[in-house]
Write a structure and sequence with these properties.
CATH topology: Glycoprotein, Type 4 Pilin
Largest sheet: 3 strands, antiparallel
CATH architecture: 2-Layer Sandwich
Order of helices and strands: HHEEE
Number of domains: 1
Distance between the termini: 75 Å
Shape: elongated
Number of helices: 2
Strand order of the largest sheet: 1-2-3
Length: about 120
């Protein structure tokens, strides 16, 4: 009987060790999904702001104006706690996160997440 317990324990440990990379992959995908949802929430809040004011906030006003005017109550930051970058160029608007490392470029968890839309 003790030999069976040792063998079963061994298999449980092996299964646990094999599952660790899968958990990390799911975790990084979840982090990016949360960032994606936060950006989409900010985009919806920007549309509400435009309905109220007739235009989107300027790049200088940034996304902070959404919290100041209580248009949005959730975070205007990405999963990693850094503020989204909001840019305006003509009729192009962008919300950008530089990923887990906070640096431009990168791959996997560090890849940039950009949300771009156009309005006349």
């Amino acid at each position: 009987m003790p030999k069976l317990i040792i063998i079963l324990s061994f298999f449980v440990i092996i299964i646990y060790l094999l599952s660790i990379p899968k958990i990390e992959t799911i975790s990084s995908e979840a982090q990016q999904a949360i960032t994606n949802l936060n950006a989409q929430n900010n985009f919806q809040a920007l549309k509400m702001y435009k309905l109220k004011h007739g235009n989107f906030p300027t790049q200088i006003e940034g996304l902070n104006v959404l919290e100041i005017e209580k248009v949005i109550t959730n975070s205007i930051t990405d999963f990693w706690g850094r503020p989204f970058i909001y840019t305006v160029s003509g009729n192009q608007y962008s919300i950008i996160s530089f990923g887990a490392d906070g640096q431009r470029g990168g791959s996997n968890l560090n890849k940039d997440l950009s949300f771009i839309w156009y309005y006349d």
